[in-house]
UniProtKB/TrEMBL annotation:
Superkingdom field: Eukaryota
PROSITE patterns the UniProt entry points to: IG_LIKE
Keyword Transmembrane helix part of the UniProt annotation: yes
Keywords from the named record: Glycoprotein, Membrane, Transmembrane, Transmembrane helix
GO biological process, one term: immune response
Gene Ontology cellular component terms for the protein in this record: external side of plasma membrane; extracellular space
Organism field: Oryzias sinensis (Chinese medaka)
Protein name per its UniProtKB record: Ig-like domain-containing protein
Alphabetized Pfam families for the sequence: C1-set (PF07654)
Domain Ig-like residue range list: 29-135
Membrane-spanning residues: 152-173
Lineage, broadest ranks: Eukaryota, Metazoa, Chordata, Craniata, Vertebrata
Length: 191
């Protein structure tokens, strides 16, 4: 009985060795090629970003925001008249989005004594690629949720006018009371 068990084990072992040999020489390389091809197409893909200029109000920094790009090897910077600038620039980190793409931003703080926006550009560039996505800093390109300069000026003028009207009313009322008090004193003196 031992010889039949040993022969049975030997036959099963040979069958297993033949199956593994077939798998390792044919099936495994085919699957590996398929996985490498699929992985390469996923890892080598590039998705260009959507680039926007954002500003809360006209006094806040202008944010250049890029989102939806892949891979995460990218740079973003501000330049003026074709030269990269560093003064007044604050770079943000590259952050992941829920869809597997990435986002990043870079802020430009224009001082109040140089409010002109002419010549400024936001540049997005994938690392190792010469092509860039350039967004010019123009009022028409800036998205904002704050009041415009016009709205702020009009609001300030209205506030000054209301304040002046309140002061004028107070002065008129004060003079009338003073005149009435003066008249009452004269009447008391005569009586």
């Amino acid at each position: 009985m031992e010889s039949t068990t040993a022969a049975s084990f030997s036959n099963k072992n040979e069958d297993w060795v033949i199956q593994m040999n077939n798998y390792l020489s044919q099936g495994c390389p085919d699957q590996l090629k398929k996985y490498v091809s699929h992985g390469r197409s996923t890892l080598m893909r590039t998705e260009s970003p959507s680039v926007s200029l954002l500003q809360k109000n006209f006094l806040s920094p202008v944010r250049c925001h890029a989102t939806g790009f892949y891979p995460n090897r990218a740079v973003m910077f501000w330049r003026k008249d074709g030269k990269e600038i560093h003064a007044g620039v604050e770079k943000g980190e590259i952050l992941p989005n829920n869809d597997g793409t990435f986002q990043m931003s870079v802020d430009l703080n224009l001082s109040s004594d140089t409010p002109e926006k002419e010549g400024y550009e936001c540049v997005f560039q994938f690392s190792g690629v010469n092509e860039s996505i350039i967004t010019k800093l123009e009022e028409s390109n800036i998205r904002t949720n704050g009041p415009s300069r016009y709205e702020v000026v009009v609001s300030a003028v209205i506030a000054v006018l209301v304040f002046a009207a309140v002061i004028a009313d107070w002065l008129i009322l004060y003079k009338r009371r003073k005149a009435a008090d003066h008249l009452n004193k004269k009447k008391q003196i005569l009586l």
